[in-house]
Write a structure and sequence with these properties.
13 helices; 14 strands
């Protein structure tokens, strides 16, 4: 049975806390959902529940960081990045505070909670802030690696951690390097650049494209900021078409980050798959992924439109 990425996050915090006594964890009264309760049970003296007060939590975390601690701060993505945006900008990033904002429940896979709780703008918000690193792991193995990489980096980090379970599609020994793409499937004709839960869907789409005689490369872009400019520009020269795929708005997310790199460079045909400037709605994750076109069929259709095959 697939494990939830947020469970991998909680377990990674415990492993990290065992080797680094500077690690502290803050939560906004949702630790049973963000799974920081796993850390709370092991290290209660290093866990702080701020109640439903994300703005206060971020400011306190900035103070902790300036005192030499390494706070991992968690809430739902909608509230950690939305409600506390000004505090993340001014209290954390402006001063370069060593705060790690690790938010669960992003995107439409939050499901029945509906549009008010489905953060589709969080990557855009965080990547627009100077000094901010933005990471979006695709599976449980990579979630743990991202937690340790974030702790090692001196400076603010946003970690986007899916609510949903998913298969491990990266290798246990595969390196995780901030600023580098990871190619999970080699291809010759086209390239799918995906992040988060869409990476596994991209692999399924590549298999479907193979049946059409199209060789598709799949790149896992877990480091959205900094992004792997060299890989993107090489792909632009090598492939006939590039499609990005993400569980986020098409405005300001992975697709926009890739487009920023490609601007001014002629080469591959390009398209973005994500939520098309809409709010989410209530439904099961599977229903919503179909409703908003976050499917392997839609990825294949985009390549058909770009290449007319």
């Amino acid at each position: 049975m697939d494990k939830m990425l947020r469970t991998a996050y909680g377990e990674a915090l415990v492993k990290l806390g065992a080797v680094n006594d500077k690690i502290v964890v803050c939560d906004a009264d949702v630790s049973a959902a963000t799974m920081t309760n796993i850390f709370r049970q092991k290290y209660p003296e290093r866990f702080f529940n701020f109640g439903i007060a994300e703005q206060n939590m971020i400011c306190a975390a900035a103070g902790m960081a300036h005192s030499g601690l390494i706070p991992f701060v968690s809430s739902f993505a909608m509230f950690g990045t939305g409600r506390a945006y000004e505090q993340m900008r001014n209290a954390v990033a402006y001063s370069g505070a060593n705060v790690k904002l690790a938010c669960t429940h992003p995107g439409i896979s939050v499901g029945e909670d509906g549009g008010s709780h489905q953060a589709l703008e969080d990557i855009s918000l965080m990547r627009s802030i100077p000094n901010m690193t933005v990471l979006s792991p695709c599976d449980c193995l990579e979630t743990e690696k991202a937690v340790f990489a974030a702790a090692k980096l001196n400076g603010p980090v946003y970690l986007r951690i899916s609510r949903q379970p998913g298969p491990d599609i990266t290798g246990r020994d595969a390196p995780f390097v901030i600023g580098k793409a990871s190619v999970l499937r080699k291809g010759e004709d086209v390239c799918i650049m995906a992040t988060g839960l869409l990476v596994n869907i991209a692999l399924e789409a590549a298999e479907q494209l193979h049946r059409h005689g199209i060789s598709a490369e799949v790149a896992n872009i877990s480091s959205i900021k900094p992004i792997d400019r060299n890989y993107i520009l090489d792909a632009n020269r090598k492939f006939r078409a590039i499609v990005t795929a993400e569980e986020h708005s098409v405005i300001g997310g992975l697709g926009s980050a890739v487009a920023d790199v490609l601007a001014g460079h002629p080469g591959a045909a390009f398209a973005k798959i994500g939520v098309e400037d809409k709010f989410g709605k209530s439904g099961t994750p599977d229903e919503l992924f179909l409703e908003y076109g976050l499917t392997k069929e839609h990825i294949v259709e985009e390549f058909q439109n770009l290449l007319a095959f």
